[in-house]
Amino acid sequence: MPLEPVHLINREISWLHFNARVLQEADDTSVPLVERVKFLGIYSNNLDEFFRIRVATLNRMLGVNKKMIADIDSNPKKTLKEIAKIVALQQKEFIRIFKGLVEELERDNIFIIDERELSQSHGQFVRTYFRENARSNLFPIMLNNLKAASLKDKSLYLSVHLKVKKQPLLNRYALIKVPVSQLGRFLILPSEGSKRFIILMEDVIRYCLDDIFAIFGFNQYQSYTVKFTRDAELDIDNDISKSFVEIMTESLKQRTIAPPVRLIYDKDMPEDLLNALAEKLRITKRDTLVRSSIYQNFRDFMDFPNVGNPTLEYQQMHPLEHRRLPMNESIIAKIREHDFMLHYPYQSFNYLIDLLREASIDPQVKAIKMTLYRVARDSSVVNALINAARNGKEVTVFLELQARFDEEANIFWSEKMQEEGVRVIQTITGYKVHCKLLLIRRKEAEKNVYYASIGTGNYNETTARVYADCSLFTADKQIVSDVNSIFHLFESKYNLPKFKQLIVAPFNMRNYFLKLLNTEIKNAKSKKEAWVILKLNNLVDQKIVKKLYEASLAGVKIKLIIRGICVLVPGIKGQSENIEAISIVDKYLEHSRIMVFCNGGTEKYFITSADWMIRNFDHRIEVACPIYDKEIQKELLTMLQIQLKDNTKARLISDKQPNQYRNESGSLIIRSQEETYRYFKNKLY
Known about the structure:
alpha/beta, 10-stranded mixed β-sheet, single chain, Endonuclease, Chain A, polyphosphate kinase like, globular, 8-stranded mixed β-sheet, 685 residues, 19 helices, 3 domains, 37% helix
């Protein structure tokens, strides 16, 4: 029976609560100083994407008949107002934290200065740098010539008021894009004794504006930063006469001229200049106008340089070896002997690269198949696959071109691999392929033998250093047969296989986990032990949430570790009293999805690529894999128990008082990521 009323947190508001946890890290004095500055950058980058995707989507919904939109459970206008209110409060907190960090940096003899604070020697240094490096990258646009499509999303601009001192009526406005991608955002100036200095690139440009405009007779300049955010959702053209690469390329071009959703401007910008910009950029009252401090586009602060001592950054925890994988021994042979699991970044991602290298030159390996969603810029994974094709292996890659914000990179890699003889499958109509699969076919004693990897995160050596993920390596005949069937599905597209072990969305994943929850409900009602532990990035799907409420009401003990969005409200009397929910935000991005069900004492363990969201259950190819190896089960349960005991970086999920730290007075301090690293380090001996 459905529960009435069902208490839910609005998903957009829940996401803002998550980003507030990132902001908390910037305010946490136990976090190294430079890392705190970088957390401000992460917060800002997250908020940019939120406006580009979620706010843009809500803007699209305005004026649309609610009955025409299936996935809408709130009033878009009301939600946008609530978003604006929360973001405004967070921005005040952001400014307070940044001012405090600037003061702390100065106590460490690190000074962020602007063009007005340059000493004579620093001024000469900046002028020389500008003429040798920056000036050739600057191409001003006069405001009267500006077209809305001219401004690039996620970029920082200087709006410059040009004047002639003896002709006060002669006024012009120009826009200059700050060339961060070419030069970086920060210029490190020569030290003076123990003092180190950093100037931002827009202030370098401000200092040297006469080098650009003096030839036109201008001799007075006032400049203000401005940042422009566009709708980033792609409209996919279904013209069957075009290749999918052509369709995606055209859709990406649409993104560059998409409607605006936000304009952030310098609080000191004159109103006439603001109005002129808004008119030129077609900013309406429906869009978000944000008065800001002099520094904008804080996403660049993710690369804030450490010009001080090493203690101002996290001390690196070097990836550990896996005790079952000795150096210079065949990884394929080890998979044949026993299942094993790698846990990134605690253990080295290089094992995956080593496996691909081994497969690429092993004469008995005949084929390699792999799914790729987001790959590193100079991907060793892709290079290993190309090398395998050069060595005569049959290499097939499903490369998801619709990986948001990585579309252009994936188009590049798609074309590169095809040039080298790799078979690239680019799309399944109506679905994204989000599962993380690797399959190796090897000829052994005249038979085809398969080896597989199934993971929770991307095959990306860059993100594997900071994303906490896990990946199973197995030769289990039924599991590898199911992985093979999924690749056949990609190749045939409409031939739906039957799966023996894997749970595959969009075919049966939601219903499968609903059945497992029903088993827990049945056992709880029979006074048997009944519990569930779920670790996910996001919990949004309402059918699942309602079932979790039903399970709680029946007496099932449910523990949730949800990093991001969680629409479920724990601790509601008569509905979710048996549900505890925490979120952990720390040095590494918690990204693994792990589930454990009591199942009457015969526990069931799963890892998966899928969050519990409508899009993952219904619109993506996702995989959940059962874990049967007892040692791996113990690893997973130990990791989950460590996180559930975290009293340093764990926050309580709530709708009334979100993000309260779970501090247990008198308890031993447990910071789960550090404890997890120690756990795996101890397992080596």
